[in-house]
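Thread: Probable membrane transporter protein, structure

OP (GT): Posting the sequence first so everyone is looking at the same thing. Length is 252 residues per the record. Can we get the C-alpha cells written out before standup tomorrow? I want them in the notebook alongside the other entries.
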Amino acid sequence: MSQLITDPWFYAVALPSVLLLGLSKSGFASGLGSLATPMLALALPVPQAAAIMLPLLAVADVMALWTLRRHADRAVLWMLLPAGLVGIVIGWLSFGLLPGHIVAGIVGVVTLAFLAWQLIWPPRADAPLPGHRQTGALALMAGYTSFVAHGGGPPVAMALLPRRMEPLAYAGTSAVFFASINAAKWLPYAALGLLDGRNLSTSVLLMPLAAGGVLLGVWAAKRISSRWFYRLVQVGMLLTGLKLLADAFWPA
C-alpha cells in the first residue's frame, strides 16, 4: 500500500466520482456514471484515471449483477453485446490514435442531440422500437467510448430509453451489458501497461465506496416511480453531454 496515491486533490475528486460510479451501476441516475472518469481526470491523466476506475467497475458490476441480473431483457442484450465487444476491440487497436478529448466531443454532441430530439419530438406510444442495426451501432459506440474513458452510458441510454422499459428491466439490462463489456477490458488494459501496482492499490482503497454507491442506488431504484427514474436518466445525459463537450474544447 506504500504505492498509494497520496495527493489530497486526487481524493477530493475521487470520492464523489466513485460514489457516482456506484450509483450509476444500480441503474439509478445511470447517465451520470459517464462523468466519473472525466471527474477523476481533473487530478490524473485520462489513461491512469480509466485504469483506476476499472477494478472499481468490476466490484460495482458484481454487486449490480447480483441484485439486477434477473430483470435483464435477454432479447435486447443479444442486440447489444456482440457490437459492444467489437467496440472494445476497436478501442484497443486504435488506442492513442484519436485524442481522448475528440472522442469526448463526439459522444457529447450525439448525446445532447439525442436528448433534444427526445424532449422536442417525444416518441409516440406506437412508434417502432430501435432495430438491430440502430441498436448495434449504439452498442458499438458504447463499447468504444467505454474502452477509452468508461463513457459508454449515453449510447446505451439512447438504445434503451425509446423502449420505455420498467426501471428494473432498464437497470438489469444495463448491468449485464456493462459487466460483460468491462470484463473484456482487463486483457487490453494489462497489455497496454495500465494496470500497475500504484493504480491497483489505489483502486482497492476506494472499493468500499463503489460498493456503497451500488447499494444506495438499488435502494432508490426500487422506490422511485418510472416517471422520475427516466427524468433522472435524462438529467444525467444532459450533464454528461455538456461535460464531454466541454472536455472537447478545453481538454485537461
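GT: Both are above now. Quick notes for whoever picks this up: The chain has a mean pLDDT of 81. DSSP finds eleven helices and no strands in the chain.
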